[in-house]
């Protein structure tokens, strides 16, 4: 199972390249991925005997009980067939729905395959925490797919709405998962359901889980996001909103039903809200004029129907629920694709603009009729079998009291009548003659769809009819799951076309006759009922909730955030002082153990750091204050060295140097000194807060060190690092092996920081790689012999660096250029040495990346932005992405070999000349860190260095242009020494 999931993930990664290379016909190739997984599912179908599920376990984060445990049983197999089978057909459908010129279509292909992988991962996950990871992946991918037409405001709004609603439900679900898992002592769904815990605490956890399920499956009151999501392309609706994403909540309800369906909160949330959703969704579909919205509200109705059936907790009702689950996927996906073909051919989905389309597209009309028959519950279709089974089993169920069961069955009957009515309305609206004897303009001007466009909807529509005739064998596949539920004294009924004359037959006749009557009287119903404005509109309530949240946030911000950095920092520091101090005084305190055994050098360094900190507070010049702050950092590195931690000292020195450079780059845009202010009355208070914060840190640190009752771990760390991490540098082994999860999270934060810096500078989007000398040449750049002064600048074309020739000669330093020319290769070699030797000596990927970053800083300072582009002509985002991909791939590779994530292996190879080399796989993880640090430095230099250089030059050029326009007489066009721009200014122009 995990191998199949990994294969789908790999296919998702390469899918954009396939579409980009082949075009939209590449969707046929992408369809092979879910098709191959479907073949695997069918060939490994679980044995019919109970408890014969296939289980696979891979250790992931054992300390959090977050191992990857997959379970393949009957329910998983059923959902997998829908996810993968319908997914393959929808991908084939995409080959004709999109054209090659459509933007983002290549990325769309990757997102669709990734969604199939995420849904497959969701249904095979037995660990609830892992299930939640896939749950949220489907949410994110749904946001991207619904927002495919991102230039449309409606698409962006709908995608955001779906994201917010399902994420809200997902967060509630996460809390419920943690509560249920901690109370049960396990996070495995199979173990929890087999021995369900009880109590009010568990009931609250189940309600939170159900909030996630109901929001995902668009059950009232979370139903409104699904119709809005119809702004997505039709293939998204046919897949996510018919067969995949919306079924995730139904799947979770079905998973939990054997253990928790008897609780009162469950019956209210699932059965009550599900029945309400069925009626409300169908009722809303009767008033829609857009074919897609008719199906959307119909989907809401059917999801409520399925929630009731799988949520009651009766074995026979569950058989009906699974039948409807499968039938709905077939007929609804087919109908959505039919709508897509209509829209593609005619350019409209409005039933008022479609007349006599059935005469022009008879094959499509027959396809829609077959799928609609299954949706309406017409005999001989699989949808008819599911509804008849539901009517019979709900009426006699022992899971509810008789009056409850009969009430629910009558509600389902009413909902089914409405379903039949909106099905007829859909077919009439799409293909009917209406009152016209000629086709409507949209139909008359339509183009004929390609024959291959029909394949996917035809296959699903015909399958819904064929399944009705082979319902017995199909029902036998459902029985192992149904047997996990209570049958309440009834024998498990088999699915069949005919069980004899009885209540189900009467109900089916009522559904068909009532549906026809409701359809014929739809105009009168619309005039009498739909003319009134509804009392409650979930979409308007959602908008009002967002506006209220904005208002509250503005009020809160206005009263707590006045825009004053000292006030904000003071609140943070006071909180950090008071809370730990209160805890310290209320809790038990051990005797302080203070070690005064320090060398004279350490006292000297500490004194220098204190003096530098005081100077940073006193000095007004920003650059001077920055430099003395740097002294405190270098002093910290010196203390590391004096305490025998060369690796930490090296990293601290490198980080401090790089930080100073970044500070200086930022200070270029600020005045040399801050503005003088007269409100100085709070200086003593600020000093008091600063001293109190420092004292609190010292006291808390001393008490924390004194409270240690066992031998510190660092005593055994060097031996453990060499034994398990195969490295003599304990610090590096700790980072890339023992605590590699922490490191992976930290480098992800580094990428976020780089993105944040770039977003503040570039505002809208990144501008690719740093500009190179060739870019300047294309802009007709050159060296000016004049500047702002009246005296011409003598030309100086001696260059040690490629980009220095484009700089103003007055701003060049030949000594710095020559030194950079000599030092840069040495620093690069030193960087590689630190990276490679860091596992056994001071260094590592972080130190090596910082060294390489300093080399880039040197090239930039010596030669300017064009020299930086020549030093590393690669877009920083690509370096950051490659680094994260390498580290993440290294982290999970060991899982596919049967070992926990981030496990290390060692290989000893003999290389000619070099001799025997020991290679540890953690080196590849460190390589990712190395690239991320380099990408971070390059991104910061490009943002705070090169980009600000461009803005400064453009501003100076604009000023010179205005001055030149005012100074040059109108009759003179001859250039003077004052108006000839410099090379950089010409490039900027």
TrEMBL record:
<feature type="transmembrane region" description="Helical">
    <location>
        <begin position="624"/>
        <end position="643"/>
    </location>
</feature>
<feature type="transmembrane region" description="Helical">
    <location>
        <begin position="6"/>
        <end position="22"/>
    </location>
</feature>
<dbReference type="Pfam" id="PF04039">
    <property type="entry name" value="MnhB"/>
</dbReference>
<feature type="transmembrane region" description="Helical">
    <location>
        <begin position="130"/>
        <end position="150"/>
    </location>
</feature>
<dbReference type="InterPro" id="IPR001750">
    <property type="entry name" value="ND/Mrp_TM"/>
</dbReference>
<feature type="transmembrane region" description="Helical">
    <location>
        <begin position="843"/>
        <end position="862"/>
    </location>
</feature>
<feature type="transmembrane region" description="Helical">
    <location>
        <begin position="919"/>
        <end position="938"/>
    </location>
</feature>
<feature type="transmembrane region" description="Helical">
    <location>
        <begin position="200"/>
        <end position="226"/>
    </location>
</feature>
<feature type="transmembrane region" description="Helical">
    <location>
        <begin position="600"/>
        <end position="619"/>
    </location>
</feature>
<feature type="transmembrane region" description="Helical">
    <location>
        <begin position="75"/>
        <end position="98"/>
    </location>
</feature>
<feature type="transmembrane region" description="Helical">
    <location>
        <begin position="818"/>
        <end position="837"/>
    </location>
</feature>
<feature type="domain" description="MrpA C-terminal/MbhE">
    <location>
        <begin position="691"/>
        <end position="765"/>
    </location>
</feature>
<feature type="transmembrane region" description="Helical">
    <location>
        <begin position="410"/>
        <end position="431"/>
    </location>
</feature>
<feature type="transmembrane region" description="Helical">
    <location>
        <begin position="162"/>
        <end position="180"/>
    </location>
</feature>
<protein>
    <submittedName>
        <fullName>Na+/H+ antiporter subunit A</fullName>
    </submittedName>
</protein>
<keyword id="KW-0813">Transport</keyword>
<dbReference type="InterPro" id="IPR050616">
    <property type="entry name" value="CPA3_Na-H_Antiporter_A"/>
</dbReference>
<keyword id="KW-1003">Cell membrane</keyword>
<dbReference type="GO" id="GO:0005886">
    <property type="term" value="C:plasma membrane"/>
</dbReference>
<dbReference type="Pfam" id="PF20501">
    <property type="entry name" value="MbhE"/>
</dbReference>
<feature type="transmembrane region" description="Helical">
    <location>
        <begin position="318"/>
        <end position="342"/>
    </location>
</feature>
<feature type="transmembrane region" description="Helical">
    <location>
        <begin position="27"/>
        <end position="47"/>
    </location>
</feature>
<feature type="domain" description="NADH:quinone oxidoreductase/Mrp antiporter transmembrane">
    <location>
        <begin position="125"/>
        <end position="405"/>
    </location>
</feature>
<feature type="transmembrane region" description="Helical">
    <location>
        <begin position="293"/>
        <end position="312"/>
    </location>
</feature>
<keyword id="KW-0812">Transmembrane</keyword>
<feature type="transmembrane region" description="Helical">
    <location>
        <begin position="883"/>
        <end position="907"/>
    </location>
</feature>
<dbReference type="InterPro" id="IPR046806">
    <property type="entry name" value="MrpA_C/MbhE"/>
</dbReference>
<feature type="domain" description="Na+/H+ antiporter MnhB subunit-related protein">
    <location>
        <begin position="815"/>
        <end position="938"/>
    </location>
</feature>
<dbReference type="InterPro" id="IPR025383">
    <property type="entry name" value="MrpA_C/MbhD"/>
</dbReference>
<feature type="transmembrane region" description="Helical">
    <location>
        <begin position="363"/>
        <end position="385"/>
    </location>
</feature>
<feature type="transmembrane region" description="Helical">
    <location>
        <begin position="649"/>
        <end position="667"/>
    </location>
</feature>
<feature type="transmembrane region" description="Helical">
    <location>
        <begin position="743"/>
        <end position="762"/>
    </location>
</feature>
<feature type="domain" description="MrpA C-terminal/MbhD">
    <location>
        <begin position="608"/>
        <end position="671"/>
    </location>
</feature>
<feature type="transmembrane region" description="Helical">
    <location>
        <begin position="687"/>
        <end position="705"/>
    </location>
</feature>
<feature type="transmembrane region" description="Helical">
    <location>
        <begin position="105"/>
        <end position="124"/>
    </location>
</feature>
<feature type="transmembrane region" description="Helical">
    <location>
        <begin position="498"/>
        <end position="522"/>
    </location>
</feature>
<dbReference type="Pfam" id="PF13244">
    <property type="entry name" value="MbhD"/>
</dbReference>
<feature type="transmembrane region" description="Helical">
    <location>
        <begin position="264"/>
        <end position="281"/>
    </location>
</feature>
<dbReference type="InterPro" id="IPR042106">
    <property type="entry name" value="Nuo/plastoQ_OxRdtase_6_NuoJ"/>
</dbReference>
<dbReference type="Pfam" id="PF00361">
    <property type="entry name" value="Proton_antipo_M"/>
</dbReference>
<keyword id="KW-0472">Membrane</keyword>
<dbReference type="InterPro" id="IPR007182">
    <property type="entry name" value="MnhB"/>
</dbReference>
């Amino acid at each position: 199972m995990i191998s199949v999931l990994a294969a789908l993930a790999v296919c998702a990664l390469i899918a954009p390249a396939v579409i980009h290379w082949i075009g939209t016909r590449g969707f046929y190739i992408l369809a092979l991925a879910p098709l191959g997984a479907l073949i695997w599912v069918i060939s490994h179908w679980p044995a019919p005997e109970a408890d014969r599920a296939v289980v696979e376990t891979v250790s992931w984060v054992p300390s959090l009980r977050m191992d990857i445990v997959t379970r393949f049983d009957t329910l998983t197999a059923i959902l997998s067939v829908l996810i993968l089978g319908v997914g393959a057909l929808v991908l084939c459908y995409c080959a004709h729905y999109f054209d090659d010129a459509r933007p983002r279509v290549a990325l769309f292909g990757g997102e669709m395959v990734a969604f199939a992988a995420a849904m497959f991962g969701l249904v095979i996950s037995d660990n609830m925490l892992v299930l939640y990871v896939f749950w949220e992946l489907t949410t994110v991918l749904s946001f991207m797919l619904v927002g495919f037409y991102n230039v449309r405001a409606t698409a962006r709004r709908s995608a955001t709405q779906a994201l917010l609603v399902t994420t809200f439900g997902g967060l509630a679900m996460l809390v419920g998962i943690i509560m249920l898992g901690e109370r049960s002592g396990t996070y495995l769904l199979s173990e929890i359901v087999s021995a369900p815990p009880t109590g009010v605490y568990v009931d609250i956890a189940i309600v939170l889980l159900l909030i996630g399920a109901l929001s995902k499956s668009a059950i009232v009151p979370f139903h409104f996001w699904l119709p809005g999501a119809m702004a997505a392309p039709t293939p998204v609706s046919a897949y996510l909103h018919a067969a995949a994403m919306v079924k995730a909540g139904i799947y979770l309800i079905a998973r939990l039903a054997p253990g928790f369906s008897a609780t009162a909160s469950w019956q209210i949330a699932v059965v009550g809200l599900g029945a309400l959703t069925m009626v409300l969704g169908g009722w809303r579909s009767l008033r829609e004029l857009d074919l897609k919205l008719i199906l959307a509200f119909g989907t809401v109705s059917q999801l409520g129907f399925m929630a009731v059936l799988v949520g009651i907790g009766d074995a026979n009702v569950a058989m009906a629920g699974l039948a409807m689950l499968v039938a709905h996927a077939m007929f609804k996906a087919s109908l959505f694709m039919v709508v897509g073909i209509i829209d593609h051919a005619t350019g409209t989905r409005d039933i008022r603009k479609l007349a006599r389309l059935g005469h022009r597209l008879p094959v499509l009309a027959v396809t829609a009729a077959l799928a609609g028959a299954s949706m309406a519950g017409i005999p001989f279709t699989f949808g008819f079998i599911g509804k008849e089974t539901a009517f019979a089993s709900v009426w006699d169920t022992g899971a509810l009291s008789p009056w409850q069961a009969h009430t629910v069955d009558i509600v389902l009957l009413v909902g089914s009548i409405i379903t039949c009515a909106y099905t007829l309305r859909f077919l009439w609206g799409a293909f009917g003659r209406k009152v016209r004897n000629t086709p409507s303009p949209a139909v008359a001007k339509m183009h004929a769809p390609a024959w291959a466009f029909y394949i996917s909807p035809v296959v699903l529509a015909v399958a819904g009819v064929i399944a009705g005739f082979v319902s017995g064998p199909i029902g036998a596949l459902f029985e192992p799951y149904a047997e996990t539920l209570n049958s309440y004294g009834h024998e498990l009924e088999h699915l069949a076309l005919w069980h004899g004359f009885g209540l189900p037959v009467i109900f089916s006749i009522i559904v068909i006759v009532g549906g026809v009557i409701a359809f014929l009287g739809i105009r009168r119903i619309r005039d009498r009922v739909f003319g009134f404005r509804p009392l409650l509109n979930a979409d308007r309530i959602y908008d009002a909730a967002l506006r209220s949240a904005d208002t509250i946030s503005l009020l809160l911000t206005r009263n707590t955030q006045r825009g004053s950095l000292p006030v904000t920092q003071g609140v943070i520091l006071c909180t950090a002082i008071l809370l730990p101090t209160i805890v310290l005084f209320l809790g038990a305190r051990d005797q302080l153990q203070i070690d005064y055994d320090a060398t004279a050098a350490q006292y000297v360094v500490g004194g220098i750091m204190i003096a530098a900190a005081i100077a940073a507070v006193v000095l007004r010049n920003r650059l001077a204050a920055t430099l003395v702050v740097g002294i405190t950092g270098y002093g910290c590195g010196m203390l590391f060295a004096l305490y025998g931690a060369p690796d930490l000292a090296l990293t601290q020195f490198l980080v401090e140097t790089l930080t100073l450079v970044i500070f200086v780059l930022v200070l270029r845009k600020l005045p040399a000194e801050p503005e003088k202010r007269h409100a100085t009355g709070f200086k003593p208070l600020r000093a008091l807060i600063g001293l109190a914060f420092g004292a609190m840190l010292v006291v808390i640190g001393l008490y924390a060190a004194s409270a240690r009752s066992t031998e510190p771990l660092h005593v055994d760390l060097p031996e453990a690092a060499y034994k398990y991490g195969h490295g003599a540098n304990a610090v590096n082994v700790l980072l890339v092996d023992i605590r590699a999860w922490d490191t992976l999270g930290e480098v992800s934060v580094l990428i976020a920081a780089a993105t944040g810096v770039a977003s503040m500078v570039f505002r809208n989007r990144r501008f690719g790689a740093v500009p190179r000398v060739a870019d300047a040449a294309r802009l007709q750049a050159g060296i000016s012999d004049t500047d702002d002064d009246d005296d011409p600048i003598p030309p100086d074309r001696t260059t040690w660096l490629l980009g220095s020739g484009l700089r103003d000669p007055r701003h060049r330093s030949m000594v710095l250029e020559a030194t950079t020319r000599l030092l840069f290769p040495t620093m690069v070699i030193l960087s590689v040495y630190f990276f490679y030797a860091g596992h056994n000596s001071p260094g590592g990927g972080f130190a090596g990346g910082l060294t390489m970053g300093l080399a880039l800083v040197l090239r930039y300072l010596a030669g300017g932005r064009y020299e930086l582009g020549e030093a590393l002509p690669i877009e920083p985002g690509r370096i950051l992405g490659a680094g994260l991909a390498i580290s993440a791939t290294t982290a999970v590779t060991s899982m596919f070999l049967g070992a926990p994530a981030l496990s290390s292996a060692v290989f000893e190879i003999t290389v000619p000349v070099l001799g025997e080399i020991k290679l540890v796989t953690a080196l590849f993880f460190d390589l990712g860190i190395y690239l991320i640090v380099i990408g971070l430095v390059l991104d910061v230099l490009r943002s705070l260095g090169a980009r600000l250089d461009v803005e400064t030059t453009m501003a100076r050029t604009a000023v010179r242009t205005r001055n030149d326009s005012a100074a040059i007489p109108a009759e003179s066009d001859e250039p003077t020494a004052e108006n000839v721009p410099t090379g950089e200014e010409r490039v900027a122009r």
